[in-house]
adenosylmethionine decarboxylase
Amino acid sequence: MATPACPEPFVDHELSINLDSTFAFEGPEKLLEIWFWKSESVLPESAPVGGLRSIARESWAKMLDLVSCKILSMKSSRYMDAYLLSESSLFVFPHKLILKTCGTTTTLACLEELFTMAQSICAMGSKEIYRVFYSRRSFMFPEKQIHVHKDWKHEVSLLNQHFSLGKSYVVGNFDSDDHWYLYVGGEEQDHPSAGSSADQTFEILMTELDPECASKFIYSRKPGDDIGEQDDLGHELGWETMMETELDTVFQSPRVNTHLPSPSLSDVSEDEDCMDCKTDDNCLQASANFEFINDAFAFTPCGYSSNSICSNVAGGYYYTLHITPESGWSYASFETNYPFNETVDVITVLTKVLKIFKPKKFSLTLIEEISDEQHLTGKQLVGCDLILKELGYKRNEKAVYDLKNEYNLLYMNFRSG
């Protein structure tokens, strides 16, 4: 399959200057992940080069209007496009998309428009897609939600209208204010796929952040403040925050600079960014130097979001963070599909993130594809109690699910003290 040309980086300068997050309150995100096809190698012949990536930015913006969020900026690699939104993130791959939105956004309101857009590249209805995941933590302010997001049963009902073979789960103590919802739909297989590529998604959902840690995401910048047409204060401060908190070194040694900065700071040309990858899939375990293109933004008066996408290793790897630091409802999330290995293991990344935010409570989720390969990520997390005890955390809950004979779910919940 031919590789599409990378789109030019994009920044909505006017939105960046004037975006006011004073009244933002609901940190926990709604996470929608739709796989139209199992991989980019099986796109139908009728689909254009690039698959979903061939859909114009203006079309994504129209869809996001239905979700009640805007595109702040966009960065691309050879493998994917990453949109930083006024409320979290959108990642577009040739064969799938990931939409993550916080606040009172109406994530599921975009489904009809999304499949209308998809019809423009391939005659496919929502019942024919390969896989769909929809998940969210319990809301802090559920009464503020609108559309179907007021009630999980209403969300599931809408999802079932669009997707086949849907199953829904409520994970964790339902009587607490800290449980997790998951919906899975799409094709169902009797056995795991032979030679599968071992897809996985790892999330850390943190609440009651340490006040000193949270203060690093509170800014003196006010809506309308700017430093010139060629620069962007929101992205400048975002990149400075990323370096100051070491969120740019989650997967690498701090002494190794393997990152490309946000759009307003990057000196790397698109030709360099989109050069042929020198590392193939077989080198994943041997490669410790994943290079990430970063797009970070500091909201005013507080809050932070960043997308980081791998530019030198095939597979469409990313990590993304979103922080609402307000006292009383502080929240931070970390999500990645990074292929953890012996060089960079999941426990190392988990402890790094926890030390940055020092939450009083957190949950972690791992959705891991069952494959022929042996994966240690889930086993390492199951056995992480002693390591986290040294950081002052005690496990409240652990749950393991077999999802449609193809994925495993691990959910764990911890609190300090």
